[in-house]
Amino acid sequence: MLADGRTVRAQTVVSNADMKRTFLELLEPATLPRSFRTQIADAPAANSAFSVHLGIDFVPNLSPATHISSPMHVGIAMMSKLDPSAAPEGQATLMLISLLPYDEARLWFPETGGRIGGNGGGRMNMKSASPRWEIGWSQRPKQ
Fold first, then answer.
1. If you ran DSSP here, which 8-state letter would residue 129 be given?
2. Which domain holds residue 88?
3. E strand or H helix at 51, and its extent?
4. What are residue 80's phi and psi, to 5 degrees?
5. Rounded CA Rg of the chain
6. What does DSSP say about strands 92-100 and 74-77: parallel, antiparallel, or unpaired?
């Protein structure tokens, strides 16, 4: 049901929310069996994905998908290498992504008890919560 009271029906609904928010908050309790709701409520929290999207003014010598396993296990995706229209000539788009355990990710939003959103939103406090993300960047390579 929408905020204005209208109902929109569909055969399939895709949710980008986590499973607890989807099944326990977004759906009416009567729409799901109690045993299923209990199973969802008791399930441990899953990992989060931490991602950074960048536009850079050079094209690194990387494959479109690269994984760095040490020290932080970071995936690097350079979609502009596959689709040149994604960035101007001589520039590139990069996405850095890493999985982050729930207990570490929730520390980024201390004023909401680890919950993203809610009253006051979530101000990320990466340095105090996650020292492994203090990344020092070197100067860009000479062209």
1. H
2. 46-100
3. strand 48-56
4. -65, -15
5. 20
6. antiparallel
- Amino acid type, 103: D
Whether 36 is in a domain gets the answer: no
Number of helices and strands in the chain (H, E): 4, 4
The SS3 call for residue 68 is: strand
Residue 25 falls within a domain, yes or no? no
The answer on pLDDT for 75 being more than 70 is yes
Structure tokens at 13: 């609904």
Is 91 in the same domain as 111?
no
The 10s digit of each residue's pLDDT in 105-141 is 777 766 665 555 444 444 444 444 443 443 433 333 4
Alpha-carbon distance values, 69 to 16, 52, 94, 97 (Å): 27, 17, 17, 12
Please state whether the predicted TM-score (pTM) of the whole model is above 0.85.
Answer: no
Amino acid at position 33, single letter: P
Q: How many residues in total does the chain contain?
A: 143
Q: Does 138 map to a domain? A: no
Structure tokens at 137: 């960047």
